[in-house]
Amino acid sequence: MIKRVNTFISIFIKVFKTYCDVFVGTISSIIGVYFFFASNSIKISRQSISMVDSAQFTPKLVFGGIVIFGFFTAIKGIILVRNNRESYTKNAISKQDVDAFKRGFVALFSIAIFIFLIKPFGFIIAAILYMLFSMFFLSVRKGWKPVSYAIVSISVAIFSFYIFKKYLFIQLPAGILEGVLK
């Protein structure tokens, strides 16, 4: 089973390395087009004098630029693939590439778990757990510093919560610490 997963990951990495500019260009163009048209729904509180004065101008400018950037990136990727097709098929995927992909996937999955833990446990607890996991997962085992990791995780989580609450006026979920935090 593990060999099949590693083979699938190797094929995925090879395809993505070959066509990464095409993928990134196409996806960014699609996202840019979506948000370009979604910016039409921005409510305008007063009639604008010119098109530049409108609240819709900057989002349309930014997302229009993303569409153009994505289009040219995809075209560049297609040209590169056509010109270098032989070299792409000869490159082998190493075990380190597969392991790096797995680590990246676990890191992204841990972010998703962090997002789901925020509401029931609260921002501070979820952030501490996420940072501790990330520090232990991304460092070499013989270089682990559990006390330092705990101090940094607790400090950053509490400081972030405080900054969001007092200065940015954004109420993050307190979760199980509801009565403790005021």
From TrEMBL:
Transmembrane segments: 20-37, 57-79, 100-117, 147-164
Annotated ranges, domain DUF1468: 29-173
Keywords: Membrane, Transmembrane, Transmembrane helix
Protein name: DUF1468 domain-containing protein
Organism this protein belongs to: bioreactor metagenome
Lineage: unclassified sequences, metagenomes, ecological metagenomes
